[in-house]
Structure formats: C-alpha cells, structure tokens
Write a structure and sequence with these properties.
single chain, about 500 residues, alpha/beta, 3 domains, nine-stranded mixed sheet
C-alpha cells in the first residue's frame, strides 16, 4: 500500500483515539482557532466531518508545506553552494592563467599557438581550392531547399559573387530590449519564495545565475521566437521603375548576437565589402520596459535632434494608440509586488486551474518575467509578417501617415468588445505566441551608446553607389499609464499601456 494511502489511515486511527477522550465540538473549535479559517467552523460537528477535515488540512497544508518549503530550501542551498563554488574556481583559474601569461611561460603559449596554426592553418582563402562542383543553378536549388547561403560565401569567389547580392540585398533586424528592473524584481522574489510558487523553473541554477549577474547591468536584449513564424527569411514583391513586379527575399536577423555581428562587421565597418550589396535595410526596436528612460537620455535625445535637422531624413515622433493587455492573474502579480510568499490555496488554484485555462503560463513562468508586455511583440510581428506592410513604413513622411498605419490602432479595431472578451485573444496573441529564448545584459551606458550608434548607422549613407540604399528604423515601446483604472485591473486583470513610436526614414 502506498504511503499516500497509509497517511490518512493513520490520521483516522489517531482521531478515533482522540475523539474518545475529547469531544468533537472541542476538536472542531481548536482546529478552527489553529487554522484561522472559517472552513472549520461547524454548527453541528460530527466525527467523520472533523476527521475528513483534519486529513484535508494535513495533506494540503502540513504535507504541502514540507514538500514545497523544506524541499525548496534544500534545493536552494545546493544551487547556492554550486554557484559560488564554480565562481570561486573560475576566479582562481583566471588568476592562474593571468600569472602564467606574464611569467616565463609565454614561450610555451607561443609554441602551442604556432603548433595549432601549422596544423589547422590561418589562411582566409577558400578551403576547397576548386571551382564549384555543381552549376550555379544546382547551388540555387540547394539553397532553396534550406541550405544556408552564408556558408557558401566562403567557398570561392564564384559562389560569393552569386549569393552575396541575394543574401544582403534586403536585410531586416528585430531588436527587443527591456530595463532589468522587472527581472530583478521577479527573479528576486522567486529566489526568496520559490518554494511556494505555482510554477517552477526547469533550471533553477540558470535562473539564479542570471539573477546574480543582473546586478551589474541595467538593460537586457531578448532573443524572441514567434511560435507560428520561425523563418529567417521572408518573400515579398516590389514594383520596379519599369512597372514590373519583382520578388524580393528579405533576410531577418533576430538573435541579438547576430544583430551585434551585423552592426559591428557590416554597418559601421568602413572596409566591409558586404555593404555594397545592401539595397534595402529596415529594423524594429521594441522596448518592453524602460522606454521613457531611454527617450530622456541625453545621448539618444541629441542623436534624434541631430537627425531631425538632416534634410535627407524624415524623423517622426508621436504617441500612438494605447494598448490594452492583461496580466496572467492579479493575485500572481500582487504577491510579487508586495514581496509575499504564495499561500497554498492560491498556489494550488493557479497550478491546477489557471494552467488548464492558459497552458502557456506554465511554460513562461517564472523564467520569462514578462507576460502582459508580450502582446506588443505579437502585434508587431504579426502585422509585419507580410513584409509589404513593413515596407509601407519606410514610405512614411509625416506623423499623420504613422498614425494611420499604427499597428496598435489596427489591433484595437479588431477587439471592439467588452473587457472579458478581449482577455482571451490578447493572451493568445502575446504570451500564447511569443517565447523568450535568450537574454544578453548590458549597462545603461553601453545600451544607449549602441542604440545611438545604430540610429546613426541607419541614417548614414550605407554604400558608395550613386543610388543610396533605402533604410527605415521603427522604434516603439510601452509606458505604463499612470491613470490606469484600478477597478478594471481588479476585475479583469486589465492593464493599459501608452505606446510611443519613432520612425527614421530616408527622405524620398
């Protein structure tokens, strides 16, 4: 017989003995006083009812407290020891390597380096040493079936000349960033009260490591994935000067490490030969938290003001339509905001019922941090899934046009319904569709410097051809509305964000 079946049986036997000595009324009264719960107040208590409630109280309070809290503390202790031990070993290893490099060992390092060079070589010439073994048409078919054309650029000049114009002709980048304040708040609460959480992380060590590392930084750049659209390229068409419909393949860069490589090696690299192939460049910068702070920073403000005076640019700043979104559950947010541990009734309810109603909640929490904010990503990514819609943004010249094409205005028009009917579609569009895969931390100074540099790179002449490339940078972000209706939040977990947008286009 399992332990779970034996425990209630033992409790029933103990209660049989106890109730022979003490009256049912006194036991019920004591139980009610101990728990402080009205659930244990009886008008006419009976033996079976009291016994059942004691078993219930044991299973869902005492047993839950032990399994969650004691187990959690043991797990947390193991993670803390592991983290600080690894950090200590890493620090010692770094010091040893630094000392070796400045001691009498440089000759050894030089020898090992020369051995590696002689074995693997450092030539940047194509490793194949031969011309394409297939006709170019065959290579094109191979690329159409999913081969990465970026790898073919390194084979020989013939393939480079064929696929570089195709790969770099149209480039689009997506950048998602946020202040680290939400992560520090949510991760800090989980590290402190994680044993009572309705959702558990699959990798507590990684979460704790991020929490510790975040202390030295101010912003994070997020690698996000749209569950229904994971393609790295998209096809659209334009009408050329001769009135002919021409299909264009646009390469989409979403991983921040690749965005950074493209920025450093191509956009701001004066000697990059890839720049000459770029004919169309677009980018979206989506700010989940900290938009106001970024806009008010001196360097970003000066960059925007400087570009506003450039006759070759159209810089438009405006407040776009507010965005109504919804929290996962008001009680979930409230416990975190008030720095309190979850009580077992709320935790059990969220774990059992909310998980059934929103199966994506358990896959997001506690690692994601963001829930209601993800709606902005779902709206933007879906709106620009057809790249013709994004290309229309590059034609905007006045604020009125931006307000007409506002993605949030279009989304709001599809949800002209009562609050309770908006909740489901909003959650499916945002947290039900968007997944955060990776995070990169930056200081405030580095973040602002990067964003200012990116804006300048988009606004400057990209290549040396007579006809410069088309470029368009769209920046939008969320700012919590201070006048949000608290009653609406309490009834439907509704939160209203103001949205602010900036678009920087080359003048037509």
């Amino acid at each position: 017989m399992s332990d779970q079946i034996l425990k209630p049986t033992k409790i029933a036997r103990v209660m049989d003995i106890l109730l022979k000595v003490v009256s049912v009324e006194k036991v019920a009264h004591v139980l009610s006083r101990l728990t402080g719960s009205k659930k244990f107040n009886f008008r006419e208590p009976d033996k079976k009812g009291v016994t059942d409630l004691v078993e219930f109280y044991y299973r869902w309070t005492i047993q839950w407290q032990f399994e969650r809290l004691v187990t959690w503390k043991i797990k947390k202790l193991g993670v803390l020891i592991n983290f600080h031990l690894i950090k200590r070993v890493s620090d010692i290893s770094t010091k040893i390597i630094d000392k070796l490099q400045v001691s009498s060992f440089p000759n050894l390092f030089t020898f090992l380096r020369s051995f590696k060079i002689s074995r693997y070589g450092t030539s940047i010439t194509p490793v194949t040493g031969f011309k394409s073994c297939f006709p170019i048409e065959i290579w094109s078919l191979i690329v159409d079936f999913g081969a990465d054309p970026g790898n073919l650029l390194r084979v020989n000049k013939e393939l480079f000349g064929t696929f570089a114009p195709r790969l770099y002709r149209s480039i689009h980048i997506d950048i998602v960033l946020s202040s680290l304040d939400p992560l520090k708040l949510y991760y800090g609460h989980y590290v402190k009260h994680g044993g009572t959480y309705p959702y558990q992380t699959s990798d507590f060590y990684k979460l704790y490591e991020r929490y510790q590392n975040s202390g030295s930084f101010d912003y994070e750049f997020l690698d996000t994935v749209h569950r229904n659209s994971k393609n790295n390229t998209t096809k659209s068409f334009i009408i050329n000067d001769k009135g002919v419909k021409v299909y264009i393949e646009t390469r989409i860069i979403k991983k921040f490490c690749k965005v950074l490589l493209f920025y450093e090696n191509v956009l701001i690299n004066e000697s990059s030969i890839m720049k000459k192939f770029i004919k169309e460049l677009s980018g979206n910068i989506l700010v989940l938290n900290g938009m106001k702070c970024l806009l008010e920073s001196l360097e970003v403000n000066q960059t925007i003001q400087s570009m506003s005076q450039d006759k070759n640019l159209k810089v438009i700043r405006c407040k776009t339509e507010p965005l109504d979104t919804f929290e996962h559950c008001l009680c979930y947010e409230t416990y975190i905001e008030r720095d309190k541990s979850f009580i077992w009734e709320e935790s059990w309810y969220l774990e059992k019922y909310e998980r059934c109603a929103q199966p994506f909640a358990s896959s997001l929490f506690p690692d994601s941090v963001f829930f209601k904010e993800l709606l902005i990503l779902g709206v933007i990514f879906d709106q620009f899934k057809s790249f013709e819609n994004r290309r229309m943004f590059s034609l905007i010249q006045v604020s009125r046009e931006l307000q007409i094409l506002d993605p949030f205005k279009y989304w709001n028009s599809t949800l002209d319904r009562p609050i309770y009917k908006k909740k489901g579609p909003a959650r499916l569009k945002g947290p039900g569709t968007i997944k955060i895969e990776n995070r990169t931390f930056f200081t405030k100074a580095t973040t602002i410097g990067f964003l200012s540099g990116l804006m300048k790179a988009f606004s400057s002449k990209i290549n040396d051809s007579k006809i410069d490339s088309n470029s368009s940078l769209f920046i939008t972000g969320l700012v919590l509305n201070p006048d949000v209706n608290q009653d609406a939040r309490e009834v439907g977990a509704k939160v209203t964000f103001d949205t602010y947008s900036i678009i920087i286009n080359k003048a037509k």
